[in-house]
Amino acid sequence: MSVNDDVIKAGVASDADYMGRLFRDFQAADNASISAVMPLCMAPYFSLVLHEAKLKPQTIDPSVFDEFSAEAEEVCARARHSLKLFEDNQRNIEGQLRFFEDDILKKHSARFLENTWLRFARRWEKDLGLFMYDGALITTSHAAAFHLGVDADKLFQNDNGVYRLSITRQMGQCFAALGARMDTHGGETFVRFLSGARLKSADVLASSYYAETFDGVATQTAINVALTDFQVRMNFINKVITAGVDIRNLEYTVFKIRYLTLYQVLLSLKLLKEDSRYPLLPVSTIVIEKILAAPAARVVMDRSVRHFRNTLMHYNLLPSADTARVDLGQPIFGLVPQYFPGYDFEGLSGLVDTCISDTASALNDWSRGV
């Protein structure tokens, strides 16, 4: 077996182990809101693991996915690709904004508005759910729908949740086959350290909410939907997924989720700023420029570390990796010093944390017009 195969197997095993402990902790949570909302925040990362593992049949036993239907595979693929945000090479910015407009905004409004026969009561109808932890917006019903990967028509079909339960069960079976165990006595995940009292929710009218956030009515609504998605992703990895852990000594899966999310948000902001078809207010352009110019952001986004991001995303090593220096006993298999000279894992993790905190803060301020 090659070093590359060893890295793939170790990465998948680490992710499966973490997800098993996470499912265990969801089940043990004593707060229904925690066990309902947090899986929505984690959904695209579940799909990332399964989608990428399935693409490695030479290394990961393909029989793991024997019961995985074509429909479930398609849902996972859409959810996994959602993590690329504006870098999605199938949709790019134009396609993503069109998706937000047609499949999120319009279909959610059609589902939740104008449902009452009392016309005067329609003013109280709402079509956007907001979920906050410690005052930070960590997901919305729109963001959750985007990252679930489920077609809107099937998401809203009146089948008592049978379709979604079928997909979830198939994903669970695959995780179990990969080694995830809910009866494990392994380390606790972030779920054990969350307080239900700190999780709040509110229902609002989407058209009113997006008109008052980020660039408001000065830009198309779909851009504000996208920016809100960037905001909730950053708040989740900043406020929630690191609960109860030392940010400089993170386990593989938590670091991976944080780094990939940060990288894709930063890159998406860069792509948006550089695309003249989608002009932002001058003050907003300045916000993005400040985010991208931060020393930590420049390290995370440097072109020389793209292969590091690719290994975290796809599991396999890239030709730039020195296999002689790969060490499965080290964090991220000893790859950090190869791609980030002058940094060990703890140093890079601290730098990433700084960048996450600063970027989340900047997006939160921007969303409020601060």
Outline the structure in words.
This protein is mostly helical. The protein contains 15 helices and three strands. It has helices at about 5-30, 30-55, 70-80, 90-110, 140-150, 150-155, 160-180, 205-210, 220-240, 250-275, 280-295, 295-300, 305-315, 335-340, 345-365, and strands spanning about 130-135, 135-140, 200-205. The chain has a three-stranded antiparallel β-sheet with strand order 2-1-3. Strand 1 and strand 2 form a beta hairpin. Helix 1 (about 5-30) runs antiparallel to helix 2 (about 30-55). The protein starts with a helix and ends with a helix.
Considering the chains and any ligands shown, give keywords for the structure.
single chain; 370 residues; mainly alpha; 58% helix; globular
Please state how the strands of the largest beta sheet are arranged side by side: 2-1-3
* Main sheet properties: 3 strands, antiparallel
DSSP E strands, number: 3
- What is the residue-averaged pLDDT? 94
Q: What is the multimeric organization of the chains shown?
A: single chain
Strand content: under 5%
What is the gyration radius calculated from CA atoms?
20 Å
Helix-and-strand structural type: mainly alpha
What count of helical segments does DSSP give? 15
Tell me the overall shape. globular
Element pattern in H and E: HHHHEEHHHEHHHHHHHH
